[in-house]
Specification:
The protein is α+β, with helices and mostly antiparallel strands. The protein has 2 helices and 9 strands.
């Protein structure tokens, strides 16, 4: 069996809110919410993949902060993936929507109001519940 695909998610935060991104129509899980990030490419560390994804998706040069959470998940009909969430508190450049249907700065307490991907829900519950601090 192949090892799980490595995927990163950046929890971009400012003033008690985090950046939530809505997946575009036409791809997998259209209209669902997620944190920016994506697959780590061959030869990249998790941190390198996180920085590249944030540059591609948001146009920012991020300082990858602490590892917040790791989990494994598998959607029906897809291979398993290992998902690593990083805190992103510092960056240069202007956060720009380069690929999402929408983006919102959401207070942590309100994240449950968005229809997030199943793979993110355990992390969001821990974040809202205070087990994870940004």
């Amino acid at each position: 069996m192949d090892p799980p695909v490595q995927v990163t998610a950046g929890v971009v935060s400012r003033a008690g809110s985090v950046l939530a991104c809505q997946r575009p129509t036409g791809g997998a899980h259209p209209g669902r919410w997620e944190f920016p990030g994506g697959k780590v490419e061959q030869g990249e560390t998790l941190e390198m993949g996180m920085r590249r994804e944030l540059q591609e998706e948001l146009g920012i040069d991020a300082v990858v902060g602490p590892l917040l959470w790791q989990t494994q998940f598998q959607y029906p009909g897809r291979g398993p993936f290992a998902l690593t969430f990083f805190g992103i508190r510092t960056w240069t450049g202007k956060v720009t929507n380069r690929c999402f249907a929408a983006m919102r700065w959401m207070p942590i307490a309100n994240l449950g109001a968005l229809d997030f991907l199943e793979a993110d829900r355990e992390f969001i519950g821990a974040l809202i519940g205070g087990q994870i601090r940004l």
